[in-house]
């Protein structure tokens, strides 16, 4: 159950927060690797703020002070960004990432593309690929910028990346979506 809006939801739809560090602090655990007690909330600023107002963290972790909801949201957003980066690196390492406009277009036409990442600062490329990208529907997302997308390929700039493995694509899309949702300050 979400500690903010109190709605029931699947575990993977929720962000788990745990108590960690010294002195102990409430931290997001986006990969669900932390042990011990956890508080689950929807990965959005609204539910985090509601959970803080309801003193959900203080009660669960026996704290005298609630964490700062904004800080927790920023932190979770950064964690999801790093997770997305890690997944992109994994796709590159395992040969499931295609770059280069022609090759990307070919992969789309061959129905091999599970997720298309477009750099936020490459609007022109986006326009040129639109005909092909439209077929991908919601599997086409704006993510990072040309510098960020280039990094895992060891290039200064990459505008578009096609991910051809479904499991990496699914997790990457979710992490990227949550990172941008949480980054939007209310
Ligand atoms: Zn919620």
CATH superfamily of the largest domain: Ribosomal protein L30/S12
Taking pLDDT < 50 over at least 5 consecutive residues as the criterion, the unreliable ranges are none
The CATH architecture term of the largest domain is 2-Layer Sandwich
Query: Termini, distance in Å?
Result: 23 Å
Order of neighbouring strands in the sheet with most strands: 4-7-5-6
Q: So what's the overall shape?
A: elongated
Question: What is the average per-residue confidence, as pLDDT, rounded to a whole number?
Answer: 91
Helix/strand class: alpha+beta
Beta fraction: 15-25%
* Topology pattern, helix = H, strand = E: EEEHHHEHEHEHEH
**Number of domain modules:** 2
Small molecules bound: zinc ion
Query: Regarding CATH, which class of the largest domain?
Result: Alpha Beta
Task: Write the SSE topology.
Layout: E1 15-20, E2 25-28, E3 38-41, H1 45-53, H2 56-61, H3 69-93, E4 97-99, H4 101-109, E5 115-118, H5 123-134, E6 140-142, H6 146-150, E7 160-163, H7 166-183
Bound molecules: zinc ion (ZN).
How would you summarize this macromolecular structure in one to three sentences?
The chain has 7 helices and 7 strands, in the order βββαααβαβαβαβα.
Please give a structural write-up.
This protein is of the alpha+beta class. It has 7 helices and 7 strands. It has helices spanning about 45-55, 55-60, 70-95, 100-110, 125-135, 145-150, 165-185; strands at about 15-20, 25-30, 40, 95-100, 115-120, 140, 160-165. It has a 4-stranded mixed sheet, with helices on both faces. A 3-stranded antiparallel sheet has the order 2-1-3. The radius of gyration is 18 Å and the shape is elongated. The mean pLDDT is about 90. The structure holds zinc ion (ZN). Zinc ion (ZN) binds near residues 4, 5, 41, 42 and 47. Zinc ion (ZN) binds next to loops.
